[in-house]
Amino acid sequence: MNSPLQMIVDCDPGHDDAIALVVAAKYANLVGVTTVAGNAPIAATTRNARIVLDMIGSSAPLHQGAHRPLVAPPRDAAYVHGESGLDGADLPAPSRAADSNDAVSYIIETCRATEGIWLVPTGPLTNIALALRSAPDLRDRIAGISLMGGGTFGNRTTVAEFNIWADPEAAAMVFEYGGKLIMSGLDVTHKLQATPERIAKVRALPGRLAAVLADLFVYFSDVYVSRHDNMLGGAVHDPCAVLALTHPQLFTTVDQHVRIETSGELTRGMTVIDKRGLIERLDPNCTVVWDVDAEAAFDVIVDSIGSFSN
Ligand code: BDR
Ligand code: CA
């Protein structure tokens, strides 16, 4: 698609990462894709990213990134995404390997060569932090960073969301980088659920891509419904980071100050959001996404999938 929005999606597919890639390929100029260890080890997330790009016929460059967090021990999310990172569907074999094993250099070189690219991280922030640390000039080259992570409640600990919890030191660097930052956390992503009725819309589309993604939605949603008291389907987290850019009219945001807790015994990986109504609240460094028109947002996702279906 001819879109003024240029994106590098940095991901750890991951069911919802896969959907984020499809939405980005439809509604933005998907400049490139980089992978990070998170939901599954790096070999699996890279393989999965290649499979998704193959299925949508995308020739976007794919570069493999960090195999572990900066400081934290590597811990995946097989309890949500399965051992492969994309359990639940019969997937085709990937056509080829990644274009390199140096996602960080790819991000730096690409953002230096072309101004105004959005970085869209949908996994742990390791690659993005390493790129910003090696090349602080990127702050003034990129359009900004729109990430999925954080929130006022946790899913990996009481207060920590998985992507931030997996690499809190990297997240701290990203939240302090000083440029435009948009955060789609659990508060908004849990409002966008893949209910059976919504998954049926994907299932009704023609072609293999839609069938595979419907199967992935079913697996992911079954996990969420079985692990929560009151959910009707999987939280469609990662597409929110893309949609917040491509379809901002569907979201409600507030500019606020957000910092990452890296040392708390009970709170490591927490996004500390200054929601105070006091005049001494800290200056905003982040656009926090709080609400979404879920029906409309899911219809955009269905349209994206449909556009690659035949
Ligand atoms: C985030 O963690 C992963 O399991 C998902 O892909 C998403 O990026 C949600 O906490
Ligand atoms: Ca993810």
Automatic annotation (TrEMBL):
GO terms for molecular function: purine nucleosidase activity; uridine nucleosidase activity. Keywords: Glycosidase, Hydrolase. The keyword Hydrolase applies. One of its GO terms (cellular component) is cytosol. Residues 7-298 form the Inosine/uridine-preferring nucleoside hydrolase domain. It holds the Pfam family IU_nuc_hydro. GO terms for biological process: purine nucleoside catabolic process. This is Unannotated protein. It comes from freshwater metagenome.
